[in-house]
């Protein structure tokens, strides 16, 4: 039997692979009698390509446009005919020059370039993770990079970003080839309205109230031209409307991000030989209970009859809540170091110590 270590990243501190490595080191420091299998996971947001690479996919570099048009090197993951494309790699908030938001002009064009590059590399199936977007352009940039022509009433290409959407009159998709896309998405927001892409996520990308109004009007016009029926679909508002464009123009299928990624990474095969699963993320809180990676891992492990322990930078859930969810135990770095800033700075050694404690606790209980 094995211990399967399948964590998400500790955002701002460690990648998922680094979390898994630190936990494994702590477990093995206590006992080397039991194999430890590391399987870092992701839910479709930043870190998705890294998780795929850790599971055996090949990391492929591509020169693409960042959200403001500046050329950057981004990556997708490839194994056989399956590619994992992470929107955040090309069009994410961390790709904004100097971290300065560009809520009206940021574009998803680079994401389309990544998809095109993956297809050129031989991928016939694209898994697109749509978390962490810097743009609210309704996916117009992505479609343009794939060959679409987004035009105003005079036949001129509209400006990039959400600011150009209110002038869209026609969308020519004749040059867009068919592509098999699965969206790894954990939000169910529609494109428009108070629960839509502009209202909910625009402020997180630096949009002022007046910017939100501009973006909402643009998305409404964009939807009226590209596909009104898809605008209300759950997840259409993902990544500033990239979900909408993928559904309306590319025929994409949407699946919960963690479920899709666990299938892709081979979790079901790995958990068969496990007696214990260890998962986790930086902050275990109420949001974690709504489809985030650790709970996705927990549910998959419970389906296989394997108990699951969580490790976290901090745990904001009362014991009654995490027990009700199904976790056997939760261990947090703040159990060892009460200062959150030190937890972030020293996450790896603290996590190793935490794993050592976890190993001793479970050995004593066995």
UniProtKB/TrEMBL annotation:
One of its GO terms (molecular function) is glycerate kinase activity. Its EC number is 2.7.1.31. Pfam families: Gly_kinase (PF02595). Keywords: Kinase, Transferase. It comes from the Bacteria. InterPro entries: Glyc_kinase_flavodox-like_fold, Glycerate_kinase, Glycerate_kinase_RE-like, Glycerate_kinase_sf. The keyword Amino-acid biosynthesis does not apply. It is an enzyme of class 2 (transferase). GO terms for biological process: organic acid phosphorylation. PANTHER family: GLYCERATE KINASE (PTHR21599). Belongs to the glycerate kinase type-1 family. This is Glycerate kinase. It comes from Amycolatopsis carbonis.
């Amino acid at each position: 039997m094995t211990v399967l270590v399948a964590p998400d990243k500790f955002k701002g501190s460690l990648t998922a692979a680094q979390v898994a490595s630190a936990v494994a080191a702590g477990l093995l420091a206590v006992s080397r009698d039991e194999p430890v299998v590391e399987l870092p996971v992701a839910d479709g947001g930043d870190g998705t390509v890294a998780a795929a690479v850790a599971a055996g996919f090949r990391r492929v570099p591509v020169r693409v446009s960042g959200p403001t048009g500046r050329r950057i090197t981004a990556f997708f993951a490839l194994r056989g005919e399956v590619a994992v494309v992470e929107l955040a790699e090309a069009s994410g908030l961390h790709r904004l020059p100097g971290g300065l938001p560009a809520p009206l002009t940021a574009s998803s064009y680079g994401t389309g370039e990544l998809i095109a590059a993956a297809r050129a590399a031989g991928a016939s199936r694209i898994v697109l993770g749509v978390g962490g977007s810097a743009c609210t352009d309704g996916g117009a940039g992505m479609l343009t990079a794939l060959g679409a022509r987004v035009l105003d009433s005079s036949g001129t290409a509209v400006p990039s970003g959400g600011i150009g959407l209110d002038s869209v009159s026609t969308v020519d998709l004749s040059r867009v080839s068919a592509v098999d896309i699965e969206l790894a998405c954990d939000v169910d927001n529609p494109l428009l309205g108070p629960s839509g892409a502009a209202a909910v996520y625009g402020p997180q990308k630096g949009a002022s109230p007046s910017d939100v109004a501009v973006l909402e009007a643009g998305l409404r016009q964009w939807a009226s031209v590209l596909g009104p029926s898809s605008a209300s679909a759950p997840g259409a508002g993902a990544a500033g409307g990239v979900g909408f464009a993928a559904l309306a123009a590319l025929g994409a299928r949407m699946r919960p991000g963690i479920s899709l990624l666990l299938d892709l990474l081979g979790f079901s095969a790995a958990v068969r030989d496990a007696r214990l699963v260890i998962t986790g993320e930086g902050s275990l809180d109420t949001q974690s209970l709504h489809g985030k990676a650790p709970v996705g891992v927990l549910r998959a492990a419970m389906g296989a009859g394997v108990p699951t322990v969580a490790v976290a930078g901090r745990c904001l859930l009362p014991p009654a809540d995490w027990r009700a969810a199904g976790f056997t135990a939760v261990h947090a770095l703040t159990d060892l170091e009460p200062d959150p800033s030190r937890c972030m700075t020293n996450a790896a050694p603290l996590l190793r110590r935490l794993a050592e404690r976890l190993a001793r606790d479970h050995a004593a209980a066995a």
